[in-house]
């Protein structure tokens, strides 16, 4: 990696039919780089098969501005544009930003610096991190928060904002990741970050100022559908082990710099595990019973049980991953697969309790159903704890008493 004084930065701006937005973007960005950015930087306009003269305009801008170059691709897709341009870039750090410049440029230097000095491997702007300020409509705010919550619950992601159009990466690292990213469209960002985190890379987050440009090319409904399919595909890759990238450099385990530091125990105590699991279990069981009672108004017994259980299991698993078994390290791909097995056993047990009730009582009241579920949930929760502790997260030393 280059040193602070010599590192080069390439800022990629993907465009599709952006005749209106492109000139202003280039003028503002070029002026900012000249006045306030300390590293040698270039701007690469990547045209995604535009049909309105965007590429001809990009060529004119590249002739007008010394640091600007234009590239034409005959196939659409933001992910495709970033793959091709980042692979071909000679820079040490590659950046991506949207042509509408919705993200404030004062976040560019904080985005790039941790990559230049080697502290982090990727960096992202976040509209959801503490300190960020956004101006956008309630619909887009709700969709963004819901999507990022789904990512956290289903994949245990630690980054807060997958889709903000303001990202950077060390070129030598990201080129290895790109070969394993399948999506060429809007899910590209999420898949790249999930693979990076799954392979132990460090992702730096920068809170940003962000103002929504309502002249957007994004089809929200189709994008959301494709994103959910992508999350399932990446989860499957983690489960079978294909999401592991063997040649990526691994960061060493954390260690104290002071030679006389007194280091705490690496694993949580049994007392903490039981207490944490119990609190999470009470919260998720209460939520499960309330959800079941609500869903039972519209769904049959097993359907209501399945949906309520899936939603609360996502919360329960993520909470236990973060708190109860936070310091345990095992194969993430195997843990995902084992977690699915635990969920299946738990669902079979609670469903069996409901079916048994209906076999004994012809038409039990909803209150009786809920009571039976409560008892089954308590027993199932104990079994879930034993399976998580002794099987799913059993790859490290046992905790102390």
SSE map:
Blueprint: E1 9-15, H1 22-36, E2 41-48, H2 54-64, E3 68-73, H3 78-88, E4 93-97, H4 108-116, E5 122-126, E6 133-135, H5 138-155, E7 166-170, H6 171-178, H7 188-198, E8 203-207, E9 209-211, H8 220-240, H9 270-295, H10 301-324, H11 332-360, H12 366-392
Helix pairs in contact: 5-10, 7-8, 8-11, 9-10, 9-12, 10-11, 11-12
Report mean pLDDT, rounded to a whole number: 84
- The sequence of SSEs as H and E is EHEHEHEHEEHEHHEEHHHHH
Enumerate how many helices there are, as a single number: 12
Percent of residues in beta strands? 5-15%
Structural class: alpha/beta
Query: Numbering strands along the chain, what is their spatial order in the largest sheet?
Result: 3-2-1-4-7-5-8
Evaluate the radius of gyration: 25 Å
Unreliable stretches: 328-333, 396-401
Helix content, binned percent? 40-55%
Shape: elongated
Number of strands: 9
Note the main sheet. Answer: 7 strands, mixed
Q: What is the straight-line distance between the termini?
A: 45 Å
């Amino acid at each position: 990696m280059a040193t602070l004084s010599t590192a080069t930065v390439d800022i990629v701006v993907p465009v599709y039919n952006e005749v209106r937005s492109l000139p202003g973007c280039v003028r503002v960005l070029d002026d900012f780089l000249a006045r306030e950015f300390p590293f040698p930087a270039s701007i690469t306009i990547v045209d995604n098969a535009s049909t309105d003269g965007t590429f001809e305009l990009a060529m004119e801008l590249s002739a007008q501005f010394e640091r600007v170059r234009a590239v034409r691709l005959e196939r659409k897709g933001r992910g495709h544009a970033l793959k091709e341009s980042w692979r071909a870039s000679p820079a040490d750090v590659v950046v991506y930003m949207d042509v509408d410049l919705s993200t404030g440029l004062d976040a560019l230097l904080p985005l790039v610096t941790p990559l230049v000095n080697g502290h982090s491997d990727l960096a992202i702007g976040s509209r959801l991190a503490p300190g960020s300020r956004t101006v956008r409509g309630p619909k887009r705010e709700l969709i963004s928060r819901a999507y990022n919550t789904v990512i956290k619950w289903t994949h245990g992601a630690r980054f807060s904002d997958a889709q903000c159009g303001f990202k950077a990466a060390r070129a030598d690292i990201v080129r290895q990741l790109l070969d394993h990213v399948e999506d060429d469209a809007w899910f590209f960002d999420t898949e790249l970050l999930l693979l990076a985190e799954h392979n132990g890379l460090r992702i730096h987050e920068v809170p940003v100022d962000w103002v929504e440009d309502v002249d957007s090319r994004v089809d929200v409904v189709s994008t959301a559908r494709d994103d959910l399919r992508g999350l399932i595909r990446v989860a499957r890759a983690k489960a079978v082990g294909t999401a592991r990238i063997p040649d990526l450099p691994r960061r060493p385990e954390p260690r104290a710099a002071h030679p006389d530091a007194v280091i705490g125990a690496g694993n949580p105590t049994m007392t903490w595990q039981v207490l944490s699991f119990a609190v999470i279990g009470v919260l998720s069981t209460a939520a499960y019973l309330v959800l079941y009672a609500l869903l039972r108004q519209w769904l049959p017994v097993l359907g209501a049980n399945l949906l309520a259980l899936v939603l609360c299991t996502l919360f329960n698993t993520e909470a236990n991953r973060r708190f109860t078994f936070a310091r345990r390290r095992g194969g993430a791909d195997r843990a995902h697969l084992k977690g699915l097995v635990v969920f299946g056993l738990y669902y079979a047990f609670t469903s069996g309790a409901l079916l048994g009730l209906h076999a004994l009582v012809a038409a039990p009241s909803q209150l009786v159903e809920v009571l039976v579920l409560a008892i089954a949930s308590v027993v199932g929760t104990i079994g879930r704890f034993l399976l998580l502790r002794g099987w799913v997260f059993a790859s490290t030393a046992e905790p102390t008493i």
